[in-house]
Write a structure and sequence with these properties.
The chain has about 525 residues and is an alpha/beta fold. The chain has 4 domains: about 140 residues, ATPase, nucleotide binding domain (Nucleotidyltransferase, domain 5, 2-Layer Sandwich), CATH 3.30.420.40; about 190 residues, Nucleotidyltransferase, domain 5 (2-Layer Sandwich); about 80 residues, no CATH class; about 70 residues, SH3 type barrels (Roll). The protein is built from 15 helices and 19 strands. The strands form 4 sheets. The chain has a 6-stranded mixed beta sheet, sandwiched between helices. It is globular. The protein starts with 7 loop residues before the first strand and ends in a 9-residue tail after the last helix.
Length: about 525
Amino acid sequence: MSDQNSNLKKSAWPESSLSKNERRFFSISLGNSSINWAFHGEKSENCNPTFFWRTPMLSLEDVECETPEELVKIFFRYLPKGEVGNFFFGNGEQNLQSALEENNRRGHLPTYYLVSTNSTQTDLFSRLVSCLPCRAIELQPDDLFSEAEGAYKGIGLDRLACLRGAMCVTGLPALVIDGGTALTYTAADQNGMIIGGGITCGMRLRLQALEEHASALPALNVEAEISRILDEATKSCTPADIFAKNTKDAMIIGALVEVSSFVRNVIEVWMNKVGSPKKRKNGEGTENGKKKRGDFTKNHKRIVAVAGGSGNLIARLLDEDDGGVLGTSPKPQIPTKHCGGLIHFGISWVLCAKSNQTQNVARFTNTSGQDKNMSANKKKKWMKYVGESVIKDFNPNNASGDGDSQTFKGQVVSFSLWENKEDGNKEYPLFRIVYSDGDEEDVDLTEVKILMNEYKAKGLQAIDPNNNNPEGFIGSRVAKIFFGAQMYFGTVLSYADKLWRVKYDDDDEEEFDRKELIAAVKICEENRESDPQAP
């Protein structure tokens, strides 16, 4: 629970609405593995989020500060540089005085709308913003759905927000599959009434349960093993045999079959309830060509919204024949839309509903950047970043600033285009990055270039033999001499069972133990001028 003296208050309307002159605001989702943030655009146009980022969880050390200025500095660490940070502090230094001056210039306090399923993080966030000049509003379940609309006692606030977000993105009826720590599904009918949903174990929990309760089975690096299965199926154009011939593959493939079958069955039952895909009638769902306030577009194609850290994986399994991943019986393609930030779109709906505004439907480019209406030159301009490797450091943001850093390797998997109405509807790209821990975020062009440069720099750094964080070695460059003469360079992809998987630049792969890895890094350092990926 938040402290009574904190800036964090439970929602109460109309007091929690945006002020008359308030044109931008923040939304925050506090979950069980990370904090997901969004910055929202001009209120006069719509309340939709325009920029997403994620940070590590808050720690007790973050908020055990002696002065308000220390809290301000901690808070700034959680904001991206550039427009978002400037919105809070202006162009001045990141201190309390700059924030107060910017508030005077802006004419109102910045507002943070919070959806939380983690009471500990809620308390820490409340303490973090206690001395900051801002408003922080904690949304409640009935802000999103009432009992008359099908909300039942105990349904997760995150599930309600995701469902509202899916309704905004895909239309009605809506079904959202959220692949996080838990794998959940929540559905609404054609009238926006909640049908219900379900909760089961996500991929990681399924495999952890086997590890904990079946002593003969090994511990797995889940993300690395799933990536290996997907890569092998993609490169060989041959799906994985569900009759695996080793224990690791048996565990991973068994879990993938379960998730695919489970999700497909849920979708089949949902379609039986809401009806099969239909052809759209001309003008249906509009009034004079415009969507009426409070209405949702109609989901004629029965597109399923997929979200969460496992969203890309689930979307692929819902493609034709399990996306070519599993050698099972033939299966049809199910239309999906992998949507980042559904919770934030749900928050947008709340604010639009409370302020009697129309929420514009989110404009997404297909997650592969394959919009049919996109010109070839425009696609080529941004597609060149898709597939690039990145590295991002997450530092435990304690007051002293010390402690081990968390480094995650990632890959740019897609891009989407957003329209900036403040700049004459100019389009700008956001790039979706999936990290080695299964989480993901959107970054702008400036940040994706920074993260790509981080990968190029840190991929060439020597490995400390005394480093106790084997995951931190991922992304490092290595070299090995074959047949006494030929040298091949490669990159560390993953770590599992005390072995590092290395992928060479010619696409061959092998596993190194610690001794081999240290030797390979040393060879790479000694021959850096020959490395084709050296900066």
